[in-house]
Amino acid sequence: MLSRRTDLAVEAADLGKAGAAAPEGVRLREETREGCPVTRVKVLPGRGEAALGKPAGTYVTVDLSGLARREEGAFPRSCRAVAAELRGLLGDLPPRAPVLVVGLGNRAITPDAIGPGAADHTLVTRHLIQQIPEHFGAFRPVAALAAGVLGTTGVESGELAQAVAGKVEPGCIIAVDALAARSVERICATVQLTDTGIVPGSGVGNHRFALDRKHLGVTVVALGVPTVVDGATLALDILEEAGRDDLDPAALRGVGGDLMVTPRDIDQRVKDMSKVIGFAIDLALHPQLSVEDVELFLS
Amino acid sequence: MLSRRTDLAVEAADLGKAGAAAPEGVRLREETREGCPVTRVKVLPGRGEAALGKPAGTYVTVDLSGLARREEGAFPRSCRAVAAELRGLLGDLPPRAPVLVVGLGNRAITPDAIGPGAADHTLVTRHLIQQIPEHFGAFRPVAALAAGVLGTTGVESGELAQAVAGKVEPGCIIAVDALAARSVERICATVQLTDTGIVPGSGVGNHRFALDRKHLGVTVVALGVPTVVDGATLALDILEEAGRDDLDPAALRGVGGDLMVTPRDIDQRVKDMSKVIGFAIDLALHPQLSVEDVELFLS
Amino acid sequence: MLSRRTDLAVEAADLGKAGAAAPEGVRLREETREGCPVTRVKVLPGRGEAALGKPAGTYVTVDLSGLARREEGAFPRSCRAVAAELRGLLGDLPPRAPVLVVGLGNRAITPDAIGPGAADHTLVTRHLIQQIPEHFGAFRPVAALAAGVLGTTGVESGELAQAVAGKVEPGCIIAVDALAARSVERICATVQLTDTGIVPGSGVGNHRFALDRKHLGVTVVALGVPTVVDGATLALDILEEAGRDDLDPAALRGVGGDLMVTPRDIDQRVKDMSKVIGFAIDLALHPQLSVEDVELFLS
Amino acid sequence: MLSRRTDLAVEAADLGKAGAAAPEGVRLREETREGCPVTRVKVLPGRGEAALGKPAGTYVTVDLSGLARREEGAFPRSCRAVAAELRGLLGDLPPRAPVLVVGLGNRAITPDAIGPGAADHTLVTRHLIQQIPEHFGAFRPVAALAAGVLGTTGVESGELAQAVAGKVEPGCIIAVDALAARSVERICATVQLTDTGIVPGSGVGNHRFALDRKHLGVTVVALGVPTVVDGATLALDILEEAGRDDLDPAALRGVGGDLMVTPRDIDQRVKDMSKVIGFAIDLALHPQLSVEDVELFLS
Does residue A200 carry a pLDDT above 50? Predict the structure, then answer.
């Protein structure tokens, strides 16, 4: 029988009845940053993990729907809001500690292209610090890797990240990936940040080797953007609202197939969100830069 | 209230009860060509048009699902089957009459890229007949146009086709576009050919100027490949099968948005189908060529 | 025997001895605009045409080498300088007269991609004036066409432009193309504007149908960016400077082939110059807009 | 003063007078394979290295000019010829020993895109052997890496290859890169294979960390395709033939710049050669496959 799927902790916390309190072992807090609604979900070890089916840690969701509504100033505000949350999760990472940014996913598949797109907007400095010390001597060393896909490399993204981390010796790894959401409204309108890394089987693609502290030896902060709703999840939600949660959508018209639901303008929205994520990483890692500075560096 | 949408005549004929006879004024016939199931829908003027909401004419659907199942020899068989049906619709077009191929849709949006992709696989000969008469003197003059999108040209695809047709003076126009289907199984697994041209508002994009005999002065044969199912259509079908066709999906969880449902491997499937359509056009317009010949010409 | 080739009037005027006066029938004037050196060559009918081998008219060269040197503010200054010169050549074109922008050349060949790249940066408004009159009612109608290449359409770029002009009924056509220069220093560092249109056989590609007033019925202002030096031209110049202008480079080591000379970073430079040209067209056609406004419209 | 540059041992051996014998410590042998002329240069330690300025080892040049002349059957013959020479350099590598293919160079710069292009045509099997043992159990494990460029990753290609080799534990590494030739005729018409790896500073790009046995611990077979002639090298050759080898081209018209000379159809030729190299690697590593088999696997 088909089951619901979401990669967002904020949705997992809400999978029971609407309006109910957070499950035991799970804490929610809401606030606003740069005009963007922010929800913090803290999953405690034990009961919290069991309730949400997600590893213990912090999950922050930033609502960037102002971007899709083309609100005035939405782009720089979104970048700064995500950067601030990312900085929070980096904790006490020293200013000169190297960082490795890993863009997960397949550039050739639109809703899986968030990771490679964010890597394209990452300000890479590791090589410049030695090459042009007069300009970049004070920068944090940042390396980036668009990890490609298993089918074109024969190497798991996690293995690749592990290998490169052995060279870069980062103080922290930032991994970016596409996610699946339950709610259509969250597609390309939300980013989830977490200090738990990325668990296998997430998102659009199929990365089975976890990118987390256990495998990589340093904190892995994951930034994920939901780009699809799973077809079966949507069907189950429709049936539930229709009062027919006894039905299996796999028995219905073609819904059992390997389907995804996206907005019609998914191409533009993935492009926009990749840029926000990349810029937010740049601002978080190089606090001396403004959005305008990053634009100039990357042009 | 949301309503169902399909661009396929074979599905429109079936929108009433399953197993029922074809509506009055509509004739169906089924057969097999090159191993591919073929359904011919003949829509008669008047009652047939009213029953299906589509202009009178012939609509042929070729089932190419063997291609997605990677059956042995599926590619050349699919090309030949579509070519044969296309030749049927071209009727008594003289062998040397010029033809204009118009690829509709937006190359940058995956499920809308069937038309430009097919144009890329079209063997263009119009200029070669004069330039290299020793090799191409006996070929039919073929011109091709990827009509782009209104937002990047400021000119409707239909206007553009009309303008170029004024230069090329074709005996027939072949237009290729992406369509919306009702059934998930038909996505990138079916091609519809029709001699009625393309009516406004079809498919993924939004082309408002009809490409038909009335506007362009010659027969317009349209080849369409369904690449999406409309989100609301899928929801209505699920609700109907759940016995709740009294509900409007717009009232349900996010379904009212401008959503499309596609398979996860839509990128590869659009690429494959574009090639089949392009090759089928080449075989139909140059009957002296084999699939292997076309491969060599286009490499 | 191989001969020298340049598409720049300013170089053709100088093909004789350096330091010599301008040929009879040719007038040169130099000035500076927005910090960019500007040279105006006026070719008079008869003697001027014979001396330069170019049709009578005005040829303006704007030196944008500050852009490659990454001078502060070079991008907006370059856009404004070219826009001002373009406005001069558009003469008394009424503010609401429609304009058709034609990007010539082949997007898939780096040094031939200036035209399609500039078309990508053109603010297309023709369809918006009716669709969103509240925002665009006061704009000039602008349509754009990336004319593709003969081999992929079977239709000459000039024919295509003529066909589309029949629909758009522009008061003026602006054509953008890549050119060949004699001097390596001018590659992607100069733009030539002329009111004579584009003569066949120019640039990297091979467009044989002239885009000029005679063929298109309205003034054609051409903007050309040199992106290559012809291999034989470079060889002849080297031999001349070596005092061996009696030698034919075709007899030398492989120089007779169909070669082009480009800078190593041609990809980035073509991208940069396409943007300058596109923005300059936008500023010239919509004088109410600033560089920042155009950035926002096109993002 | 500018000096000549070539990455081809066969040209370096010939840098003295034409028609002269090979330098001491260098052995040349010529033969034909699949209709393609093959030249083997053996550079002996000591004198040979000094004479050619290249590390001791075997350098095999396969002339694939039949491909550009579009000779009948040139593509499969070229693939098989290069595969056979590659197999020779792999020596006694066991049939099931893993291999890592590294595509060097920058995909975004046409003449530097040979390596990434060849990686795209590499049949990657490492992950399939476990995933689908019933089909791939008997295949050699092959992994591939398009190493990207320093500027977008912050990690040297050589470091990256070293890191991934630590995971894949290959019995041999195959590195593919673009080269610079002295002779225009050899551009995209020749492939050089060598068992010495790739020395820093080769080709179009600028990879400073050597990919060789010393750094990577296993034999590195390098396949290189010349895609450019250095501007200064061409000028020096012209001056020499003109009897003016006393002149420095840096003093001449713009030749001192960072120029490259390529054929006009470089885009198509790089595409063709990338496919030949990729297919040759596939045939060499999986001797049970034919060219047709590889076509099917990669479609």
Answer: no
Structure tokens at C198: 């584009």
Q: How confident is the model at residue B37 (pLDDT cuts 50, 70, 90)?
A: very high
Instruction: Please choose, from the candidates B266, B153, B170, the residue with its C-alpha nearest in 3D space to the C-alpha of residue B216.
Output: B170
Neighbours of A147 (CB within 10 A): 27
pLDDT one-digit tens code per residue, B108-166: 888 999 999 999 999 999 999 988 899 898 899 999 998 776 677 888 888 889 999 99
| Chain D residue with Cα closest to C250 | D238
| Number of neighbouring beta carbons within 10 Å of residue B166 | 15
Residue of A nearest to B109 (CA): A267
- Say yes or no for a CB contact (<8 Å) between A152 and D126: no
Encode pLDDT of A6-27 as tens digits. 899 999 877 544 556 788 999 9
Reduce the secondary structure of chain A to three states and give it as a string.
Answer: CCCCCCCCHHHHCCCCCCCCCCCCCEEEEEEEECCEEEEEEEECCCHHHHHHCCCCEEEEEEECHHHHCCCCCHHHHHHHHHHHHHHHHHCCCCCCCCEEEEECCCCCCHHHCHHHHHHHCCCCCCCHHHHCHHHHCCCCCEEEEECCCHHHHCCCHHHHHHHHHHHHCCCEEEEEEEEEECCHHHCCCEEEEECCCECCCCCCCCCCCCECHHHHCCCEEEEEEEEEEEHHHHHHHHHHHCCCCCCCHHHCCCCCCCEEEEECCHHHHHHHHHHHHHHHHHHHHCCCCCHHHHHHHHC
Chain A residues with CB-CB distance to D124 below 8 A? 151-154
Residue C60 and residue C45 in contact, taking contact as beta carbons nearer than 8 Å? no
Minimal Cβ distance to A239: which of B183, B238, B262: B238
CB contact under 8 A, B148 and C151: no
Q: Taking the model in full, what pTM does it have?
A: 0.91
What is the distance in angstroms between the Cα of C159 and the nearest Cα belonging to chain B? Answer: 7
Q: Which two tokens stand for residue B197?
A: 């041209």
C267 with D108: Cβ contact below 8 A: yes
List all chains that touch chain C, counting a touch as 3 or more CB pairs closer than 8 Å.
Answer: B, D
Interface test with D, best of C241, C270, C272 (most D CBs within 10 A): C241
Q: Which of B188, B238, B271 to mutate to test the interface with A (most CBs of A within 10 A)?
A: B238
Gap from D134 CA to chain A (nearest CA, Å): 17
Residues B79 and B36: beta-carbon distance below 8 Å: no
